[in-house]
Backbone:
């Protein structure tokens, strides 16, 4: 017999998306629904106006990426950012700062305090708190190539247990060379989801997740499938494809850990 916790539904209320040729969820949704072609283009990043001027100058690619998709998801959900708990998931952290710190250590130079502050894995969470003024709990995790699935599992669990809204932000950006050769993340990709314990006028579907042994779903477009395979945050693209069409009951299998996959069951909100 299922417990009450297992019967709780989790609703996707808003999505944020950014990547090459995927500048917003609105445009990405049309591409994944098959109504417009996918045309790869450079990813355009912006530091949010909500950051103080000094912080806007200091933040790097990874923080800009995480905040940009998080802000878009919250806006699409018409949610109160201050009230949302957050889960931030990145496979590799800030490669630019890691590279700069390695150069400083190799040259026996002093390390910039700003570089060090921005190099820690939960830096995007801290900047999110500045932008959103959120004081709800925040979790930052890393699951290597399974980081999107690990973040989704954590966020869904929090919604079910705590019965409060959660913003999931999954994001990855390339390392500079020579670290790029060791960790070939070649593009900047971010996905954000606002998850809620109650349906709203903006809810897209309800979801549940469970471990499974099935093969992960792929994408029918070769260039987007290459993104899915190469970028850990891109492992969430098949879920967005399922959400891009007419809401219906469906099942999406995402890459996870240790030869296990993550099955996501989607149901219409009604």
Residues:
């Amino acid at each position: 017999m299922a417990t009450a916790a297992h019967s709780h539904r989790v609703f996707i209320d808003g999505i944020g998306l950014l990547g090459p040729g995927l500048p917003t969820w609105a445009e990405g949704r049309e591409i994944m629904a098959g109504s417009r072609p996918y045309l790869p283009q450079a990813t355009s990043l912006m530091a949010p106006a909500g950051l103080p001027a000094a912080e806007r100058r200091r933040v790097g690619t990874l923080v800009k990426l995480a905040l940009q998709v998080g802000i878009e998801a919250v806006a699409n959900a018409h949610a109160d950012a201050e009230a949302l708990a957050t889960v931030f998931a990145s496979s590799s952290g800030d490669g630019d700062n890691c590279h700069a710190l390695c150069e400083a250590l190799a040259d026996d130079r002093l390390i910039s305090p700003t570089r060090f502050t921005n190099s820690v894995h939960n830096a995007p969470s801290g900047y999110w708190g500045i932008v959103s003024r959120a004081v709800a709990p925040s979790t930052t995790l890393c699951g290597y190539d399974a980081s999107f699935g690990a973040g989704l599992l954590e966020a869904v669990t929090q919604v079910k247990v705590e019965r409060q809204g959660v913003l999931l932000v999954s994001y990855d950006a390339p390392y500079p060379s020579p670290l790029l050769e060791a960790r070939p993340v070649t593009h900047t990709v971010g996905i954000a989801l606002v998850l809620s314990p109650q349906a709203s006028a903006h809810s897209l579907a309800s979801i549940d997740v469970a471990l499974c042994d099935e093969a992960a779903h792929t994408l029918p477009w070769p260039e987007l499938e290459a993104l899915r395979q190469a970028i850990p945050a891109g492992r969430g693209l098949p879920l967005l494809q399922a959400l891009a069409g007419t809401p219906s009951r469906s099942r999406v299998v995402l890459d996870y850990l240790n030869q296990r996959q993550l099955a996501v069951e989607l149901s219409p909100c009604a």
Notes: The two ends are 24 Å apart (CA to CA). The beta strands are 10-18, 85-89, 138-141, 166-172, 189-196, 205-212, 250-255, 261-267.
